[in-house]
Amino acid sequence: MTRLHPVLRDTPGLILVLAGGAAGTAARLHLEQAVPTESGRWPLTTFAINLVGAFVLGALLEYLASSRLPDETARRIRLFGGTGLCGGFTTYSTFADEQVLLIHDGHLPLALGYGTATLLFGAVGTVAGLAVGTRLAARTEPTEPAIIDPETPQ
Fold first, then answer.
1. Is residue 143 classed as helix, strand or coil in its secondary structure?
2. 81: how many CB neighbours lie within 10 A of its CB?
């Protein structure tokens, strides 16, 4: 009998990734169909999807790392929202395909600009997401109740 890799034995985790991935992929497909990219033009839809995904993933992972959520709860949220939803929503393969098509169709400067902007603004989006995730985690942390001394004038 062949032993399954531990990841494959985690049925609840696989279901979370599958559900999140299906939702993220469906959202991306809907956006790409609603706003298709014309040949030889900046692939705005994929560009926006990947930037939003970088921001959301950065915010989500930083929030989970900075919050006091129980480890198993954070893991489940990460599997569904990070690996599944953001993984299905963002698309390196479409980005690469669009790069090849732009180059093949003679739009090398556009392809280089698109590639550079995606990497640069994706990194900026991730850093911004990290900052937002930190702030969100700080806002949701329980605070100590104020101790009021009845003898101190207010």
1. coil
2. 21
- The answer to whether 29 and 46 are in contact (CB under 8 A) is no
pLDDT, tens only, 97-141: 999 999 999 999 999 999 999 999 999 999 999 999 999 998 876
Scanning 11-70, the segments in alpha helix (DSSP H) are 11-34, 44-66
What is the rounded CA–CA span in Å between residue 53 and residue 82?
9
Q: Is 87 helix (H, G, I), strand (E, B) or coil?
A: helix
Length of the chain: 154
Sign of the Cα pseudo-torsion (34, 46, 84, 71, in order): negative
Residue 3: its pLDDT value, please? 79
pLDDT at 143: 54
Q: Are 42 and 104 in contact (CB under 8 A)?
A: no
CA 131 to CA 61: how far, in whole Å? 11
